[in-house]
Amino acid sequence: MVTTPGEVSKLLERIQEGDRSAESRLFDLLYADLRRMAAYHLRRERSDHTLEPTALVHEVYVKVFAQSPPETRTRAHFMALAAQVMRRFLVDHARTRNAEKRGGQQEVLPLDQAFVYDTRRSDEFLEIHAALERLREWAPRQSQIVEMRYFGGMSEGEIAEYLNVSSRTIKRDWAMARAWLHAELST
Fold first, then answer.
1. Contact 107, 34 (CB under 8 A)
2. Close Cβ partners of 49 (under 8 Å, ≥ 6 residues apart)
3. Which residue, 38, 47, 109, 122, could crosslink 56 as a Cys pair with Cβ 3.0–4.6 Å?
4. Which residues, including other chains, have CB under 8 Å from residue 168's CB and lie 6 or more apart?
5. Is 174 exposed, middle or buried (0-12, 13-18, 19+ CB in 10 A)?
6. Structure confidence at residue 117 (pLDDT)
7. Mean pLDDT, 10 residues at a time, over the chain (187 residues)?
8. 3-state SS of 80-96?
């Protein structure tokens, strides 16, 4: 579905004003992007896993619009919020799976693979979550960049726009965050 410049922002404004019909229009406009984001995280799952991209997108939609309208003004803001909600949902899902099934062989994963959600490696996913929370205490913007990049599939330009900083700052913070996470997860 093709959007015109500013259409998402206008819909978000209408949602803030209480127009519930704008929610479904926004969902229709962003559904493909949200589904790609969800599929990215679930692509390494077994073929018989219980969580599918469509279900994950719908969970995100319900959580974003469950109470009050989201405090977002642009597409980048909304996608960052969706990435955050998706990450929290996957963390909760991993915790539930771990509570149901303990043990198993743990393998060391490259950092890029560790960010892809896999129910067979929910322990590692929870370790990533804990590391991101520690990074958030030390460097909140870097943690946010990792979240938007891996969980939101956002480009450096989109992240720069959302955080209102230069792309160069995003590249520098991204490199620092990756190095910190690599060291943190290697111990």
1. no
2. 42, 119
3. 38
4. none
5. middle
6. 45
7. 75 88 88 85 59 84 79 84 83 72 48 48 72 88 87 83 91 89 79
8. HHHHHHHHHHHHHHHHH
Residue 142 dihedral angles phi and psi, to the nearest 5°:
-65, -40
Residue 36: both structure tokens together: 């790609």
pLDDT at 109: 43
Which long-range contacts does 117-122 make (Cβ < 8 Å, 24+ apart)? 117/41, 117/42, 117/44, 117/45, 117/90, 117/93, 118/44, 118/45, 119/45, 119/46, 119/49, 119/50, 119/51, 119/93, 119/94, 120/46, 122/93, 122/94, 122/95, 122/97, 122/98
- Cα dihedral 146/60/95/80 (nearest 10): 10
Q: Could you tell me which of 59, 55, 81 has the C-alpha nearest to residue 69?
A: 81
The phi and psi torsions of 122 (rounded to 5 degrees) equal: -65, -30
Among residues 27, 40, 31, 7, which one has the least CA distance to residue 154?
40
Please report where in the chains the tokens 């926004």 appear, as a residue.
26
